[in-house]
């Protein structure tokens, strides 16, 4: 091989080596940028999830409840004596997953605000679902809730939601409902019979008619002094508290602050 | 390694007739980045502005994840979409963010197919407000087709990450 040819191959090799090095650098840059993107995504997402989880905290109210009483139409009132308003009507279906979410987030908030005398809560469970097996699940649960004595009602209500079957599967058997009733402190045979024989089915039907006549189209529907609350008030603790505060300070003719305690329910 | 392989594709460059491809492709990818960023940004924003409880509800209505994962996924997904949207818009790590977005679309499509095949009636919650809907009110086919379109967009970006107005270019990546 001539000297010139040798030099050329050497140059070629050098050029090739440079090219390879450039390739390597490029690859390294691509890796660095990708790692950078991964880092940005990871940090932001993790931080945000932590913040949201914090925001998602529930009230955790464990204190005493405001007195519970059942109205003639089967609905249940939770309010301190003399508290006439603001009135928070809770339309829910025991089988409805969104209602369970509402209860998880704001069930305790409603209890606390009622116990503090800031709101009068009226629970109006009914049967929203039209198709099986949801419909029968809803019906049995609502019937059992109607069968429960008012003072044990909220405990049973909470247990029913806690044990909500997955949507689309059969659940809320009468046996389970009676069991949760016992857990809630309802031990009498009348309750058992009422559940097993669906004695309150007609009351549930009436409640369902009432909900539909009140314009309820989905659950949960929260009406505060007759006005439907939005998602923020329904599903965040701060939102619900703010809405109730606003309703209390608004000049509502029906809501008279209790200067003279009157037995309204 | 995957990166090596994909780099090779990029470097191979598509056979070019007269430079028209070389000229047009980066702009097409830029348009794709903006489009996909718009979709992801809108989807993320619609979800992230909802109360946390509804974000969880949308995820749990698929009945796929165990309870312990519903909250992290419900809270993480919207912000993930938003971050991907920003990165795509900036053109930072274009190939990776494109591929990640595509993977997300595949997961979404898989989730919808799973729900559909199990006979559940839900809204996909793709743009917020997920959860149960009335039977007969589902729109699974439209949702799948829509996501497939977005998947195609993501695939293009991943295959041809060379684009105009991209941060990557400043960093010496995916240049002409």
Automatic annotation (TrEMBL), chain A:
It comes from the Bacteria. The keyword Cell membrane does not apply. Belongs to the thioredoxin family. DsbA subfamily. This is Thioredoxin domain-containing protein. SUPFAM superfamilies: Thioredoxin-like. Residues 1-21, 246-265 are annotated as: Disordered. Residues 1-20 have a biased composition (Basic and acidic residues). Residues 86-245 form the Thioredoxin-like fold domain. Signal peptide: none annotated. Keywords: Disulfide bond, Membrane, Oxidoreductase, Redox-active center, Signal, Transmembrane, Transmembrane helix. The keyword Membrane applies. Gene3D superfamilies: Glutaredoxin. The chain crosses the membrane at residues 28-51.
């Amino acid at each position: 091989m001539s000297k010139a040819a040798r030099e050329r191959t050497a140059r070629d090799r050098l050029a090739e080596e440079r090219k390879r090095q450039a390739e390597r650098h490029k690859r390294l840059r691509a890796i660095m940028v990708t790692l950078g993107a991964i880092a940005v995504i990871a940090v932001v997402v993790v931080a945000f999830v932590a913040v949201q989880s914090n925001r998602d905290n529930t009230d955790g109210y464990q204190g005493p409840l405001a007195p519970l009483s059942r109205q003639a139409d089967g609905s249940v009132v939770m309010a301190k004596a003399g508290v006439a308003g603001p009135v928070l009507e809770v339309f829910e279906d025991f089988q409805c997953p969104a209602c369970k979410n509402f209860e998880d987030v704001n069930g305790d908030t409603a209890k606390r605000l009622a116990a503090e005398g800031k709101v009068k809560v009226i629970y109006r469970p009914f049967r929203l679902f039209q198709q099986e097996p949801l419909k029968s699940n809803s019906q049995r649960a609502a019937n059992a809730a109607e069968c429960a004595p008012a003072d044990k009602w909220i405990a049973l209500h909470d247990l029913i939601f806690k044990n909500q079957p997955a949507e689309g599967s059969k659940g809320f058997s009468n046996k389970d409902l009676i069991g949760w009733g016992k857990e809630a402190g309802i031990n009498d045979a009348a309750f058992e019979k009422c559940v097993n024989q669906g004695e309150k089915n007609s009351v549930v039907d009436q409640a369902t008619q009432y909900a539909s006549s009140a314009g309820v189209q989905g659950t949960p529907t929260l009406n505060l002094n007759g006005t439907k609350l939005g998602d923020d008030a329904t599903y965040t603790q701060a939102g619900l508290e703010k809405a109730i505060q606003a309703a209390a300070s608004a000049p509502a003719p029906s809501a008279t602050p209790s200067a003279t305690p009157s037995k309204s329910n | 390694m995957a990166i090596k392989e994909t780099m090779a594709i990029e470097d191979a460059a598509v056979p070019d007739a007269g430079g028209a491809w070389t000229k047009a492709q980066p702009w097409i990818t830029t348009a794709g980045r903006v489009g996909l960023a718009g979709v992801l940004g809108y989807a993320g924003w619609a979800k992230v502005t909802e109360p946390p409880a509804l974000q969880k509800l949308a995820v749990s209505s698929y009945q796929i994840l165990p309870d312990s994962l519903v909250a992290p996924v419900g809270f993480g997904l919207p912000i993930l979409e938003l971050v991907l949207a920003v990165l795509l818009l900036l053109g930072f790590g274009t190939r990776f963010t494109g591929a990640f977005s595509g993977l997300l679309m595949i997961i979404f499509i898989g989730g919808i197919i799973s729900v559909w095949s199990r006979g559940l009636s839900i809204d996909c919650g793709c743009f917020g407000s997920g959860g149960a809907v009335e039977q007969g009110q589902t729109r699974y086919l439209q949702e799948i087709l829509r996501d497939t379109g977005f998947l195609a967009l993501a695939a293009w970006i991943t295959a041809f990450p060379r684009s105009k107005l991209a941060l990557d270019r400043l960093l010496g990546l995916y240049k002409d």
